[in-house]
């Protein structure tokens, strides 16, 4: 092989311009741009969280406790360590506005603060005023500031009175900006901010009620966060402490962005795979047109290596150009749209050029280009000096030489390995890779099946010329059914799966909620209020079912004496505190899967019944011990049974249930779920919250609607990724149509010579496009339904019904896409002069 000669040949070939490579460049650029754009947005958000971490968190570090305030020992450590410490109390309550015609009520997430809040950042109010002045209130009443959504819902104006528990507040201003809102996590109600000292007579912070305290620390300049965090966790590891610092001021947002970004990058890889089909088709078409040139070079003494290197260098240069265009587009689009993206984000973002995601996108682009170009390039070896005829590229070996197959396998392994490492989720990457490979395999078989069916159906269509010609073209070797079905089918498969999952999820919520979900969760019911609460609920004929249970919250700190996360990793049960209940006798609704419930009069060492599914995931067994910190006290209990816990019904479910004597002496409250007819809900909530102002009523329908909205946004984000894949597939269709224009011109010339009209020839073109689109749509529909069923059944654990409007739209979309792409290139063959075309083929 003479590399210098190959480079000279490649340079001369490139002088001809980009003719035949526009689709090649577009497919590669679009796939790289999608991955680069997603990575740039993710990196920008992560940079914003790092830069503004202290503001998002509300301090340099935070110590968080459940159900209690910090002890004097903990406060002393904070005073010794930090320059300033701000105390924040976070809980849910009912905001009540008393009016002459009745009271208006709404759930709110209350933040009770001290004079130092916020340590970092600033609270913006409307009308503008210092937070301290707003919380001071007026006319002898403490002040409150409230999110505009909540104020509008209650019809509350500035200067009017709102009640939290038994304490009235005067609304001083609307909350415009809360600097640490992103660190608060998921909230069921809009925000209200009050002063902690104003809640002393409200009845909302009684022992056992559900609240969290957060102590934000202003640390000295240059403080070592690792060292201080290790000291805090070591000293207070048995008190239920949760520690965070400004390096990850909004961990929930950061974790969500990271996982969603990784998933969307993998969706982008599926788009790049579709683009790879287009790349491969474009190269095959280009090399088919170079058959005579290659044969001539071989006759002049060029060896196989030189020929391969010539076109490898040429296509490599064009690949670099396509990747560069994709990087510019992927990096530039987020910068241009930065104001719009930032306005939609709950956290700050630093939009600039981030090298890491661009390098990742470039790596994927290079590997994809190599994988999809190596196979058609390898077939140049089949062209010999004696094979100067037109269809040389369609003959020869079905597979390239073994060395090329080995190289392809290594490149695929490198691509999967890089995606696994860079996405941070090897399992998700492997499943995605398997799904793409499986889909491409099924679609390839479908393309072959379509050609086989077309060949078998041709005899029956001999009386319908247009249909007969269309079937003949589809079953022939030149139509390119495979790239059409592959490119369009994969994009439609992703869209079909997303549509089925989203439709079934929304359908399950709408269908199952009235049947299985309670109307309300009532929390913070004190023990002495239970009798009156139950009298009101059980005396209502519209209430069909009521469940009550004692409620505590605890943090699992140790498993079998070892730190819990060292034993069970980052399982969700260990991330934060979890609900804990107790019971003497085994409840009628409890089903044990293994072990035995303790005797009703049991008074020995603590025992615990654990959720069977979560126990299996964490690797727990009967006889293991769990250390649970509740209200700063460690309780070590032995697992004596596992039980079924169904969280999907939105009813009452506890991961842990202990024997009664283990917890009954601890301060706690009760929770209740109430199932009632929708018409009775308003009166039920009014009566109970009037009688017991400290009780918080959470309307389950509203909570599920909020979760449904979040899931809808996730489905939309996934749909955008699928749409990018579909757009790439449409480009591949255009490329396939453009590549087949020459053969359609010859076909049209022959048919016109035999007396066919332009209208009948056009009908033939339309029929073949529609048949291929319908085939791709039907295969995509089957794949989408299968994927939707798998996710709905195994991941979401919901029922599954085919959403037929979405399904039919997929088939219609496939037909429309192929019609548009095919007919766009139909005019030239129809208008070409037969004599000119036939003379050129002689």
From TrEMBL:
Signal peptide: none annotated. It is found in: Cell membrane. Keywords: Cell membrane, Membrane, Transmembrane, Transmembrane helix. GO terms for cellular component: plasma membrane. It is a multi-pass membrane protein. InterPro entries: ABC3_permease_C (IPR003838), Membrane_comp_ABC_pdt (IPR038766). Residues 267-379, 723-829 form the ABC3 transporter permease C-terminal domain. This is Putative ABC transport system permease protein. It comes from Salinihabitans flavidus.
């Amino acid at each position: 092989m003479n590399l210098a000669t190959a480079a000279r040949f490649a340079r001369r070939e490139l002088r001809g311009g980009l003719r035949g490579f526009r689709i090649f460049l577009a497919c590669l650029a679009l796939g790289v741009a999608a991955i680069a754009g997603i990575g740039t947005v993710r990196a920008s958000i992560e940079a914003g969280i790092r830069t503004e971490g202290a503001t998002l968190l509300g301090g340099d570090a935070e110590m968080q406790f459940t159900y209690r305030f910090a002890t004097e020992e903990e406060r002393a450590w904070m005073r010794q360590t930090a320059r300033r410490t701000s105390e924040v109390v976070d809980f849910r309550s009912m905001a009540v506005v008393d009016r002459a015609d009745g009271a208006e009520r709404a759930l709110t997430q209350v933040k009770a603060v001290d004079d130092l809040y916020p340590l970092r950042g600033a609270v913006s109010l409307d009308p503008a005023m210092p937070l301290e002045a707003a919380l001071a209130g007026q006319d002898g009443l403490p002040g409150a500031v409230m999110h505009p959504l909540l104020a509008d819902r209650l019809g509350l104006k500035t200067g009017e009175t709102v009640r939290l528990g038994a304490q009235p507040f005067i609304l001083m201003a609307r909350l415009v900006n809360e600097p640490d809102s992103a660190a608060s996590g998921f909230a069921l109600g809009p925000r209200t901010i009050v002063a902690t000292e104003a809640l002393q007579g409200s009845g909302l912070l009684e022992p056992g009620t559900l609240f969290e305290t957060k102590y934000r620390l202003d640390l000295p300049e240059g403080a070592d966060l690792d060292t201080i965090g290790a000291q805090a966790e070591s000293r207070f590891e048995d008190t239920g402490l949760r520690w965070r610092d400004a390096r990850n001021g909004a961990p929930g947002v950061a974790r969500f962005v990271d996982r969603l970004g990784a998933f969307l990058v993998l969706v982008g890889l599926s788009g790049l795979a579709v683009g790879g089909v287009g790349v491969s088709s474009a190269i095959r078409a280009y090399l088919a047109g170079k058959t005579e040139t290659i044969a001539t070079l071989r006759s002049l003494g060029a060896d196989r290596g030189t020929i391969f290197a010539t076109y490898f260098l040429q296509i490599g240069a064009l690949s670099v150009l396509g990747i560069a265009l994709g990087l510019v587009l992927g990096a530039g689009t987020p910068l241009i749209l930065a104001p719009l993206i930032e306005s939609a984000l709950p956290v700050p973002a630093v939009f600039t050029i981030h090298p890491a995601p661009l390098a990742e996108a470039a790596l994927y682009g290079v590997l994809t280009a190599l994988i999809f170009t190596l196979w058609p390039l390898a077939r140049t070896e089949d062209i010999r000096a004696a094979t100067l005829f037109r269809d040389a590229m369609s003959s020869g070996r079905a597979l390239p030489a073994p060395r090329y197959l080995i190289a392809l396998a290594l490149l695929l392994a490198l691509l999967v390995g890089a995606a696994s490492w860079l996405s941070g989720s090897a399992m998700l990457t492997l499943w995605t890779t398997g799904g793409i490979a499986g889909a491409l395999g099924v679609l390839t078989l479908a393309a072959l099946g379509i050609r086989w069916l077309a060949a078998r159906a041709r005899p029956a269509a001999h009386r319908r010329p247009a249909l007969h010609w269309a079937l003949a073209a589809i079953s022939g070797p030149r139509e390119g059914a495979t790239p059409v079905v592959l490119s369009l089918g994969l994009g439609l498969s992703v869209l079909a799966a997303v549509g089925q999952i989203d439709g079934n999820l929304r359908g399950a919520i709408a269908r199952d909620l009235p049947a299985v979900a309670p109307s309300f969760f009532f929390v913070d019911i004190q023990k002495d209020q239970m009798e009156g609460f139950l009298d009101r609920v059980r005396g209502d004929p519209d209430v069909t079912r009521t469940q009550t249970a004692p409620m505590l919250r605890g943090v699992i700190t140790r498993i079998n004496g070892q730190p819990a996360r060292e034993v069970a990793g980052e399982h969700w049960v260990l991330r934060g505190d979890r609900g804990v209940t107790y019971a003497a006798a085994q409840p009628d609704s409890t089903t044990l899967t293994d072990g035995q419930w303790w005797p009703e009069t049991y008074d020995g060492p603590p025992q615990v019944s654990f959720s069977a599914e979560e126990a299996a995931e964490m690797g727990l067994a009967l006889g293991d011990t769990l250390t649970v910190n509740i209200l700063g006290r460690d309780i070590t209990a032995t697992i004596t049974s596992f039980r079924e816990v169904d969280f999907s019904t939105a009813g009452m479910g506890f991961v842990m249930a202990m024997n009664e004597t283990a917890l009954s002496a601890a301060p706690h409250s009760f929770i209740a779920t109430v199932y009632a007819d929708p018409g009775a809900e308003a009166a039920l909530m009014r009566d109970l919250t009037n009688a017991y102002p400290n009780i918080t009523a959470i309307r389950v329908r509203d909570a599920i609607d909020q979760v449904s909205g979040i899931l809808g946004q996730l489905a939309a984000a996934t749909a955008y990724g699928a749409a990018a894949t579909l757009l790439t597939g449409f480009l591949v269709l255009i490329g396939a149509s453009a590549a087949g224009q020459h053969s359609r011109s010859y076909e049209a010339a022959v048919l016109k010579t035999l007396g066919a009209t332009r209208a009948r020839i056009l009908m033939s073109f339309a029929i073949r496009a529609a048949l291929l689109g319908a085939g791709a749509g039907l295969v995509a529909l089957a794949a989408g339904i299968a994927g939707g069923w798998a996710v709905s059944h195994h991941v979401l654990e919901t029922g599954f019904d085919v959403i037929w409007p979405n399904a039919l739209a997929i088939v219609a979309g496939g037909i429309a896409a192929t019609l548009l792409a095919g007919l766009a290139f139909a005019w030239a063959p129809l208008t070409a002069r037969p004599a000119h075309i036939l003379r050129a083929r002689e």
